[in-house]
Specification:
about 190 residues; alpha+beta; Thiol Ester Dehydrase, Chain A; 6-stranded antiparallel beta sheet; 5 helices; 6 strands; globular; DUF4442 domain-containing protein
């Protein structure tokens, strides 16, 4: 586990130091950004092999923010739109990614509950974005450091390729601090 934790930590530092707006006009900055996202997606695939097999991909991650997508191809339901399970996949994993890269590998994210409200069928790939303010991240980390665990909620707006709002997710997470032992005041 220590090796994976080191890889997650190093990848998080690499991605956090990359410019998310980098383009080919600045090839080294673009390479740093794209290689960082490739590493994040590889880590997701190692942890959850189901995700890349189903077309899940982290498109951008930076402090307090993650955007991910899932392909329609391979995830169609019986009437040709995105299968409900694919919505859940794209709405659930980014919370863990956000937690790991904002708090670090010493904290384990756990999904406690998630709901999805379907608004209309998606006939294309679907994207979702999540964010936490620096104050929210600090509060989560403080609670986890103090009590060994912390709760937080992420609400996501899932959109299709045209930008139409196709679903809303609400996910309740708990973060656990690895190796936490409660201190008994003497």
């Amino acid at each position: 586990m220590a090796l994976i934790d080191n890889i997650v930590g190093t990848t998080g530092q690499w991605v956090a130091s990359a410019d998310p707006r980098a383009t080919l006009a600045h090839p080294l900055a673009w390479l740093k950004k794209t290689s960082g996202y490739a590493a994040v997606n590889r880590l997701v695939g190692l942890s959850i092999p189901f995700a890349p097999r189903n077309g899940f991909r982290v498109e951008e991650v930076r402090p307090g923010y993650v955007r991910a997508s899932i392909r329609l191809k391979g995830n169609k339901n019986h009437f040709g739109s995105l299968y409900a399970g694919a919505y859940f996949l794209v709405a659930e994993i980014p919370g863990g990614v956000l937690t790991l890269f904002d708090l670090g590998p010493s904290y384990t994210p756990i999904l406690k509950e998630m709901t999805l409200q379907f608004l209309q069928p998606a006939n294309s790939d679907v994207t979702v974005e999540f964010s936490l303010s620096p104050e929210q991240v600090a509060a989560i980390q403080h609670d986890a450091d103090t009590t060994g665990r912390a709760k937080f909620t992420l609400e996501g707006v899932l959109t299709d390729a045209t930008g139409e709002h196709v679903a809303t997710s609400i996910a309740h997470y708990r973060v656990r601090k690895k190796g936490f032992t409660e201190q008994n005041p003497a």
